[in-house]
Structure prediction request, 72 residues.
Amino acid sequence: MAIDFLNQEECTGCETCVSACPEDVLYYDEEKGKAYIRYPEDCVACFACETFCPVSCIQVSKDRAYELPFPY
Prediction:
C-alpha cells in the first residue's frame, strides 16, 4: 500500500486530499467529518494527497501499490 498513514485525529475534514487524489483512493466520511483510505490498492504514489494536506496528516510511501502500465 502506497499510503503508509492517514492520521484521523489530525485530519480537519477539509477534503483537500480527496479532491487532489487522481485515483479516487481517498473518500470523505460524512458522519465522522474526516477523510479515509477507501481503495488503498489503487494508490499510485503520486504524493498529491500528502503534498496538499494543510495539516500534514498523510504519509505516502515511494512504493506504488501496483506498476503503472505504459500507455503505448
About this structure: Residues 3 and 60 are 4 Å apart (CA to CA). The first strand starts at residue 3 and ends at 6. The mean pLDDT is 89. Helices lie at 16-20, 48-52.
